[in-house]
Amino acid sequence: MKQINILVGGPKENLPQDFITRIQANPKAIWIGADYGAVRLAQLGCQMAAALGDFDSSTAEEVALVSRFSQTKLQRFKPEKDYTDTELILKRAYELYPDLDEVVIYGATGGRLDHLLANIFMATRPGLADLMPKVRLIDCQNTVTFYQPGSYTITKEADKKYLGFFLLTPVKALTLRKVKYPLQVVDFAYPVSLASNEFLDQTAHFAFESGMIAVIQSKD
Fold this sequence. Notes:
With about 220 residues, this protein is of the alpha/beta class. The protein is about 20% helix and about 35% strand. It has a ten-stranded mixed beta sheet with strand order 4-3-2-1-5-6-7-14-9-12, sandwiched between helices.
């Protein structure tokens, strides 16, 4: 399975606790850096398949360091744009690896509400809907996974016992089972969040017939 790893900007404390260990344990993994995430990867001596961003919080020396560790030409954008660096780097990953199976974006949800919502609603952006089911967003607090219609069993991650279901589009025939607050075949005519739920055991089950859903596992 071809997994592409992406690190984006944001406070260092929002990264998973074992993030550096993951990098050191698998030096052959494919990494791509977005904005200050690219700076952090370069500072760790990690070779990147690509790097891009507006780098509005980076020094000239940091940008030069990123250029040295990026295997392709560094791409820079103006801070004034209607899309996030995460969205840009995701599209770039797909350009480089059209046969990718999974994309793991570390630190993407962060602590800022605007970043969290922008990265979740990437799923509604043109050209990304088919790619998003291959994407996971992971930080120290949350894991976000995207789903197209089907039937799914999800496994509880460590101490992330809470579940949020974000219906990004109208959804038909949503069923939630093996959760604290189940649903039985409910249609939603507009986007809505069902953000108060919990695992009852190590797995939970949901199914739906149309639309796009983001599921967030989170800690207390």
